[in-house]
Design goal:
ATP binds at residues 90-100. The protein is of the alpha+beta class. It has two domains: 4-160 and 297-301, 2-Layer Sandwich (Ribosomal Protein S5, domain 2); 166-293, Alpha-Beta Plaits (2-Layer Sandwich), CATH 3.30.70.890. Helix content is 36%, strand content 27%. Helix 9 (237-246) packs antiparallel against helix 10 (270-283). The chain is globular and about 60 Å long. The structure holds adenosine-5'-triphosphate and L-homoserine (HSE).
Length: 302
């Protein structure tokens, strides 16, 4: 057993029509380390965006990920552990902070105990806990990823091409939306006609990302499966999406389950789109950060 350190990106997921199956790793990072101690206590020191988290260590996703990885490999976790985390990923904003913490914990266990877990296993254990693989998959693999169930119990993880002329803008408001609440807002069933439209939009998303095709992306970002049921819970959603389009975006949608709004745009329009979305929120009295996001590589042991 040795000390270990990892660096894990954030992720945006869904991208409109890729609900629960498409995600992209983005360049905001969580850095974490673990040290084995002589005692029998577990400490987790959070800095950065996690500093305000009031989570008992026993319920912290970092420790959960660590223990799940040990259990998957049949290894006994040490009793005394000291974790240190610095995160730049905003919490409960649709940028995968929970998946990032789970992946970080699992990779720390893998590195510290020499578990030799495959990337697909790490995605699988995080997805099993979260109930969807679209954050864990890009965090572990980097880039844009399609994650769908494979004939066994795991997932097929397929890297998706993103056209180089395609840029990503984010607007991150100062209010949270918990994924649990946003999933509770979804209906148990949708009308068949909506399912038909959703199938076409999901196909349009994959092809639109590869080609950078404006019409396909506009169609795909205008989701019918989850956004219609969630947008009322994100104050200003319609205004921010409209502002993105007016500033030159192909379209905009919730990042993950929100509250962040993500826009896809030609690379040279991305700064203006990010600024327009921020301004739209601020016009409603809601502080927000507008930023240009870059696609990130995979989580790494450093
Ligand atoms: N180490 C941790 N880092 C972040 N969140 C944690 C951690 N441990 C537990 N949590 C819980 O997870 C919640 C955040 O998860 P949630 O799924 O709601 O948002 P998210 O992962 O930031 O966004 P999304 O899943 O929509 O991309 C926090 O409010 C907190 O209760
Ligand atoms: N696909 C998930 C992502 C949550 O981060 C959802 O939209 O609920």
């Amino acid at each position: 057993m040795s000390d270990a350190r990892v660096r894990v990106p954030c992720s945006t997921s869904n991208l409109g029509a890729g609900f629960d199956c498409v995600g992209v790793a983005l360049d905001r990072w969580l850095d974490a380390s673990v040290r084995v101690t002589d005692g029998s206590t577990i400490t987790i020191a959070h800095a950065g965006t996690g500093a305000a988290l009031r989570v008992d260590p026993e319920r912290d996703h970092l420790l959960t990920g660590f223990r799940l990885a040990c259990a998957m490999a049949g290894a006994q976790p040490p009793q005394g552990l000291a974790f240190e985390v610095h995160s730049a990923i905003p919490v409960a904003r649709g940028l995968g902070s929970s998946a990032a913490a789970l992946v970080a914990g699992a990779l720390l266990a893998d590195a510290a105990l020499g578990l030799s877990l495959a990337a697909a296993n790490v995605v699988g254990l995080v997805a099993a806990l979260e109930g969807h693989p679209d954050n864990a998959a890009p965090i572990v693999l980097g880039g844009a990823v399609l994650a769908v169930p494979d004939p066994g119990a795991g997932y097929s993880l397929i890297p998706l091409e993103m056209h180089p002329a395609l840029g990503i803008a984010l607007a991150i408001p100062d209010f949270e939306t918990a994924t649990r609440d946003m999933r509770a807002a979804l209906p148990a069933d949708v009308p068949h006609r909506d399912a038909v439209v959703a199938a076409g939009k999901a196909a349009a998303l994959v092809r639109g990302l590869a080609m950078g095709d404006p019409a396909l992306l506009a169609y795909a970002l205008d989701d019918v499966l989850h956004v219609p049921y969630r947008r009322a819970l994100v104050r200003g959603y319609d205004e921010v999406v409209a502002a993105a389009r007016e500033a030159g975006a192909f379209g905009a949608t919730l990042s993950g389950s929100g509250s962040t709004v993500l826009a896809l745009a030609p690379v040279d329009r991305v700064p203006a789109v990010a600024d327009a979305m921020r301004a739209a929120w601020e016009a409603l009295g809601i502080a927000a950060e507008g930023s240009v996001a870059r696609v990130a590589g995979p989580a790494q042991v450093v």
